[in-house]
Amino acid sequence: MRPSGRNLSDMRPISIETGVMRHAEGSCLIRCGGTEVLCSASIEDKAPSFLKGSGLGWVTAEYGMLPRATNTRNRREAAVGKQSGRTQEIQRLIGRSLRAGVDRRALGERQIVVDCDVLQADGGTRCASITGGWVALRLAVNKLMAAGIVTSDPIVEHVAAVSCGIYAGQPLLDLDYAEDSEAGTDGNFVMTGSARLIEVQMSAEGATFSRAEMGSLMDLADRGIAELVAAQKAALG
């Protein structure tokens, strides 16, 4: 039995509430069990300097955690004066993942910045950030299209992410913190709505894993991504 009481292939309850920020071009609050992430997308009229004259747009991300998002207080990174390596790695992952679902030429020479702020952490914050970040991005692009600023939809795929792992010898879908902290193998799967892989992060935390075990985790990820994409569609109406 999982610490959460869920079946091995059960996701946590998912909810996505859109339009939660007044000024952002796109925003949502995503809840995956006890994990809550506020996602916003901001449109900037020009692309980064390295893309000047290319005709290509850019999607990037920033990620952060409130000090009491976890069971003990973490100092604000602004107070420390630098971002942790973990923060930098996660926000690069979010940016890479969201760009994989975007036709950057159709976006034109502009940038969309997706901010992901973790209000409460109970495992899977990077996955929730990617899934909710895509919804915020979708809403921002909708505004560009409604205004006639872009004429061809730059978003070509849904993008979502889910964690899977091996806990007490069993493959689990959508790990919460209690499961993640004790898992022998931990993985994050970023995929499109058509079940194409964007990125897989897997590591043997306490024990090595076999090819067959990796396959079983990928099967669970397929199931989880389908549920997350359904939640994205429901949130967008």
UniProtKB/TrEMBL annotation:
Amino acids binding phosphate: R86, G124, T125, R126
Gene3D superfamilies per UniProt: GHMP Kinase, N-terminal domain
Catalytic reaction annotation: tRNA(n+1) + phosphate = tRNA(n) + a ribonucleoside 5'-diphosphate
Record-level Gene Ontology MF annotations: tRNA nucleotidyltransferase activity
EC identifiers of the protein: 2.7.7.56
Record's keyword terms, sorted: Nucleotidyltransferase, RNA-binding, rRNA processing, Transferase, tRNA processing, tRNA-binding
The keyword tRNA-binding appears for this protein: yes
Domain Exoribonuclease phosphorolytic stretches: 10-140, 159-221
Taxonomy, superkingdom: Bacteria
Matching InterPro entries: ExoRNase_PH_dom1 (IPR001247), ExoRNase_PH_dom2 (IPR015847), ExoRNase_PH_dom2_sf (IPR036345), PNPase/RNase_PH_dom_sf (IPR027408), Ribosomal_Su5_D2-typ_SF (IPR020568), RNase_PH (IPR050080), RNase_PH_bac-type (IPR002381), RNase_PH_CS (IPR018336)
Signal peptide from the UniProt entry: none
PROSITE patterns per record: RIBONUCLEASE_PH
Cross-referenced SUPFAM superfamilies: Ribonuclease PH domain 2-like, Ribosomal protein S5 domain 2-like
Function recorded in the entry: Phosphorolytic 3'-5' exoribonuclease that plays an important role in tRNA 3'-end maturation. Removes nucleotide residues following the 3'-CCA terminus of tRNAs; can also add nucleotides to the ends of RNA molecules by using nucleoside diphosphates as substrates, but this may not be physiologically important. Probably plays a role in initiation of 16S rRNA degradation (leading to ribosome degradation) during starvation.
Family note: Belongs to the RNase PH family.
Subunit text: Homohexameric ring arranged as a trimer of dimers.
Protein name as catalogued: Ribonuclease PH
Provenance organism: Paracoccus pacificus
